[in-house]
């Protein structure tokens, strides 16, 4: 009897090997370890999470199926498949014929969700399927980031004879707190290559950022090709802070960045800083200069010494060309005119300048953004103020009913040193350790009403950093905290709980070769954490 049973088993195994090259889906898959979705290390923390304590088996039988391509959902499916391939080496088919329908990730369009918010999504993880619903491909893309964060790095290979990555089951309902979740990169003080910017975009997208502001010009360099004014990059592109060689983006390079960002559902915001911070432009075209001195190349880190000549018509012809050419390459709705620290521009000249620059930006159908000083001019309520230092300016912005981007330097500046030990960074706004960067309420900061606030943008000025590794040291982990402040509901944010989830980002950061500051405030999980399971 015993003998008979085992020989029958052997026979069916041989038959199975004979008829199929892939092993059959093992029924023991249903016995995946118990999980608890509410304990997952998700950043930003979702609005609501419910656990059902089992798991979806991500494995060689999984396929992705999406809503029709016209809505951009196919691209989101392909993006997910590519990230799964990078992470666990599985080839997951997207919208192709698949033999096994028991293990499918569906990505659906849902009109009811788009009524809440274009970026909202609903994720339902079952034992045999994952259903991601979103109003738009942007919402689906945000949901995909959540799903990526739920995939364990290590397969649960003790269960069956092929690898399975169990994804904790349950439901997640998620909506962003703020519509504008930004980072800024200063490519003017030090130049960063297209590849470096792409890597930063990858990391920002993982944490659900949707805006990347590029500070393209400053005293030390001009970084974007303007075809009608070629010396800007011929001369202005050849310098940066210190001895390094500078660099610039051709218009094709810039398009590459814009397209790559768009694939990551991130909008690029170009900034041409004016009328101050313009030494590099004036070196290239001295007629622009308004500070009464002969412009000379500048490789230092002082601010506030340069200005355009605000009363010359040809200066506005120049600005019109620059705004027109950059706007034509920029699908996003915004154009940033800078406007900060114009210490050698007379007040009345500054106001005159900002009023005229705003009209030029509007002529090319863009919404003007400026650093908080621009509110001292007569700007339209459609323009946006970026609060970085002056609460008086922030209050004036509220009085004028402007929308405000929150970048208070003592909280949100990624270029401030963490502490005494910091290798890079400045400290004019104080040290910004990661608890200071996390424990504040952007939605009620300095009595600015929440309805005026678009969201936080975390600027990274590059006087002290010159390559991606140094950039990452300042940005990570603080940029991860701003992602949570921007996305998660205030009642879901908690420093103690965040600390644990942040410590568990190490496998992701290491896998992506990210140079983060290992702050002593956090218990970093340097070994890839196994999937969280509950003992039965
Ligand atoms: C202030 S923030 C600046 C920048 C500097 C930065 C350094 C702002 C609008 N202007 O020009 O790079 O401080 O932290």
UniProtKB/TrEMBL annotation:
<dbReference type="GO" id="GO:0030203">
    <property type="term" value="P:glycosaminoglycan metabolic process"/>
</dbReference>
<dbReference type="GO" id="GO:0016020">
    <property type="term" value="C:membrane"/>
</dbReference>
<dbReference type="InterPro" id="IPR029018">
    <property type="entry name" value="Hex-like_dom2"/>
</dbReference>
<keyword id="KW-0378">Hydrolase</keyword>
<comment type="similarity">
    <text>Belongs to the glycosyl hydrolase 20 family.</text>
</comment>
<feature type="domain" description="Glycoside hydrolase family 20 catalytic">
    <location>
        <begin position="178"/>
        <end position="489"/>
    </location>
</feature>
<keyword id="KW-0326">Glycosidase</keyword>
<feature type="domain" description="Beta-hexosaminidase bacterial type N-terminal">
    <location>
        <begin position="41"/>
        <end position="174"/>
    </location>
</feature>
<protein>
    <recommendedName>
        <fullName>beta-N-acetylhexosaminidase</fullName>
        <ecNumber>3.2.1.52</ecNumber>
    </recommendedName>
</protein>
<dbReference type="Pfam" id="PF00728">
    <property type="entry name" value="Glyco_hydro_20"/>
</dbReference>
<dbReference type="InterPro" id="IPR015883">
    <property type="entry name" value="Glyco_hydro_20_cat"/>
</dbReference>
<feature type="active site" description="Proton donor">
    <location>
        <position position="341"/>
    </location>
</feature>
<dbReference type="GO" id="GO:0005975">
    <property type="term" value="P:carbohydrate metabolic process"/>
</dbReference>
<dbReference type="InterPro" id="IPR017853">
    <property type="entry name" value="GH"/>
</dbReference>
<dbReference type="InterPro" id="IPR025705">
    <property type="entry name" value="Beta_hexosaminidase_sua/sub"/>
</dbReference>
<dbReference type="GO" id="GO:0004563">
    <property type="term" value="F:beta-N-acetylhexosaminidase activity"/>
</dbReference>
<dbReference type="InterPro" id="IPR015882">
    <property type="entry name" value="HEX_bac_N"/>
</dbReference>
<dbReference type="Pfam" id="PF02838">
    <property type="entry name" value="Glyco_hydro_20b"/>
</dbReference>
């Amino acid at each position: 009897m015993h003998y008979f049973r085992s020989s029958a088993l052997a026979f069916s195994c041989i038959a199975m090997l004979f008829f199929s090259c892939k092993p059959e889906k093992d029924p023991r898959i249903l016995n995946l370890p118990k999980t608890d979705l509410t304990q997952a290390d998700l950043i930003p923390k979702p609005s609501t999470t419910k656990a059902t304590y089992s798991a979806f088996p991500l494995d060689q039988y999984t396929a992705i199926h999406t809503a029709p391509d016209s809505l951009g959902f196919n691209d989101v499916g392909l993006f997910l498949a590519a990230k799964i391939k990078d992470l666990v080496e599985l080839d997951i088919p997207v919208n192709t014929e698949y033999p096994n329908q028991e293990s499918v990730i569906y990505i659906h369009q849902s009109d009811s969700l788009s009524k809440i918010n274009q970026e909202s999504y609903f994720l339902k993880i079952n034992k045999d399927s994952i259903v991601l619903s979103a109003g738009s491909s942007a919402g689906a893309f945000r949901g995909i980031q959540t799903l990526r964060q739920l995939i364990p790095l290590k397969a649960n290979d003790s269960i069956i004879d092929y690898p399975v990555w169990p994804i904790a089951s349950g439901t997640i309902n998620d909506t962003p707190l703020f519509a504008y979740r930004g980072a800024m990169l200063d490519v003017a003080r030090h130049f960063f290559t297209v590849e470096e910017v792409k890597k930063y975009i990858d990391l920002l997208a993982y944490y659900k950022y949707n805006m990347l502001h590029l500070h393209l010009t400053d005293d030390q360099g001009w970084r974007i090709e303007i075809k009608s004014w070629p010396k800007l990059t011929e001369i202005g592109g050849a310098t940066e802070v210190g001895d390094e060689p500078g660099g610039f983006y051709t218009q094709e390079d810039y398009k590459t960045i814009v397209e790559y960002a768009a694939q990551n559902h991130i909008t690029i915001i170009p900034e041409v800083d004016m009328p101050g911070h313009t030494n590099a432009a004036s070196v290239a075209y001295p007629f622009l200069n308004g500070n009464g001195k002969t412009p000379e190349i500048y490789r230092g880190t002082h601010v506030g010494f340069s200005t355009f000549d605000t009363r010359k018509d040809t200066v506005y012809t120049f600005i019109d060309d620059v705004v027109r050419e950059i706007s034509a390459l920029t699908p996003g709705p915004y154009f940033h005119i800078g406007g900060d620290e114009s210490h050698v521009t007379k007040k009345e000249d500054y106001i005159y300048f900002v009023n005229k620059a705003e009209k030029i930006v509007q002529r090319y159908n863009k919404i003007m953004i400026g650093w908080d000083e621009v509110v001292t001019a007569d700007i339209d309520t459609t323009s946006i103020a970026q609060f970085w230092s002056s609460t008086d300016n922030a209050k004036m912005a509220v009085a004028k009913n402007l929308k405000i981007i929150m970048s208070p330097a003592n909280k949100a500046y990624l270029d401030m040193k963490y502490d005494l030990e910091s290798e890079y960074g400045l400290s004019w706004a104080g040290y910004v350790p990661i608890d200071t960067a996390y424990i504040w309420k952007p939605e009620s900061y300095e009595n600015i009403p929440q309805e005026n606030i678009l969201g936080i943008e975390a600027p990274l000025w590059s006087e002290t950093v010159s390559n991606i590794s140094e950039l990452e040291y300042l940005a990570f982990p603080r940029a991860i905290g701003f992602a949570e402040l921007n996305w998660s509901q205030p009642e879901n944010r908690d420093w103690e709980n965040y600390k644990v989830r942040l410590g568990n980002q190490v496998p992701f950061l290491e896998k992506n070769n990210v140079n983060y500051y290992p702050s002593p405030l956090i218990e970093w999980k340097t070994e890839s954490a196994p999937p969280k399971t509950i003992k039965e």
